[in-house]
Amino acid sequence: MKFLFGMLSVIWLVFGWGCYIALRWEPTMKPPWHIEAKLNEIPADLLEDRIEFARIRLQSEDITEMQRAYVHAALAGEYLLKAYKQQSKKLQTAYLKLSLQHSLSALTLIPDHPNFMYQAADIYHQLKEYGMAELLYAGALKLDPNNALIRRRYHDMVNEMDELEEAKS
Question: Do 150 and 133 contact (CB within 8 A), yes or no?
Fold first, then answer.
């Protein structure tokens, strides 16, 4: 009888734990429209190879500061793609933050580059850090006012912010 009671207790605990995990589970982030097409083009193993190549290149001694900035930007782009290939929101967020680190490193090396500003702004936007995203989008548009992609992503972010404000009201 004690054995049966013990087994039922274990089954009940496992069932309860499973329900708790299911309720706690967060759906993954949906990739933005401009990233979706690239996700299908690049296989995961090629993405890993490109990340490894960029990491090796960053450790090279014969690399100029400008080259280092472009490698950081490329690595940020690869980690951004890798983030949306993940099946867990926590892993997605971790790779987005890693992408942001490399994007900011590129921006530190070449501060007035509109594409580096846009890349960092877009990552902040995806991390829902709208204040920093807005500053960087504005800076990128100031340097490259005719860039349609930057304008559209900035507009997307403003729409998201408006929807959040309406939901709070």
Answer: no
Q: What are the start-end ranges of the H helices in the chain?
A: 2-24, 33-41, 44-59, 65-84, 89-109, 114-126, 130-143, 148-168
65 three-class SS:
helix
Q: What is the pLDDT of residues 106-164, one digit of tens each?
A: 999 999 999 999 999 999 999 999 999 999 999 999 999 999 999 999 999 999 999 98
Q: Which two tokens stand for residue 5?
A: 């009671």
**Hey, what are 55's tokens?**
């990491």
Rounded distance between C-alpha atoms, residue 112 and residue 128, angstroms: 24
- What is the assigned CATH class of domain 28-168? mainly alpha
Domain boundaries, the chain: 28-168
| Angle in degrees, 0-180, between the axes of helices 114-126 and 89-109, rounded to the nearest 10 | 160
3-state secondary structure of 43: coil
